[in-house]
Amino acid sequence: VQLVESGGGSVQAGGSLRLSCVGSGYTSARYFMAWFRQAPGKEREGVAAIYTLGGRTIYADSVKGRFTVSQGNAKNTLYLQMNSLKPEDTAMYYCAVEWFSGLGLSLDETRYRYWGQGTQVTVS
Q1: Which one of 27, 46, 49, 65 is least enclosed by Cβ atoms within 10 Å?
Q2: 19-66 per-position pLDDT tens digit
Q3: Cα→Cα distances 92→2, 40, 43, Å
Q4: What radius of gyration, in Å, describes the C-alpha atoms of the chain?
Q5: Neighbours of 90 (CB within 10 A)
Q6: What is the pLDDT of residue 106?
Q7: Residue 122 CA from chain centroid, whole number
Q8: Tens-digit pLDDT profile for residues 114-124
Q9: How many CB atoms lie within 10 A of CB 17?
């Protein structure tokens, strides 16, 4: 399994960015995809997640109303549309995947086995 993120960059507060994540090496149609982020000196935190069969989503309270997670037409593609960005959104953003289980959709990083290398987002 390989996950490759892109779309990070530097933006002023109030601006927008769209992150992308393309997965390969798997064929399952039922899995969870999520975005996490880690700021310098802080623990990694869940941002948003989606269940690929049905499209159910969950968000961290800190990004609700500003970020939107979605799938591409190719179900192995994940997006994170980030609007009204704030300096506190500055972090390395990671894409993660885990196969479907009865445990349900989650923003707990321990529930995801496969991770991308990350893309940096800087808001000034």
Answers
A1: 27
A2: 999 998 887 778 899 999 999 999 999 999 999 888 899 999 999 999
A3: 18, 9, 11
A4: 13
A5: 17
A6: 93
A7: 16
A8: 999 999 999 99
A9: 21
CA angle, corner 69, sides to 67 and 75, nearest 5?
A: 165
Sheet holding 17-24, edge to edge: 2-6, 17-24, 77-82, 67-71
Fill in the amino acid letter for 63: V
Q: How far apart, in Å, do the first and last CA atoms of the chain sit?
A: 34
Give the Å distances, CA to CA, from 52 to 5, 34, 69, 104, 108: 18, 10, 11, 12, 17
* The pLDDT value given to residue 101: 81
Residue 46 exposure: Cα atoms within 13 Å on the Cβ side: 21
User: What are the DSSP calls for 34-54, one per residue?
Assistant: EEEEE-TTS--EEEEEEETTT
The pair phi, psi for residue 55, each rounded to 5°, is: 80, 15
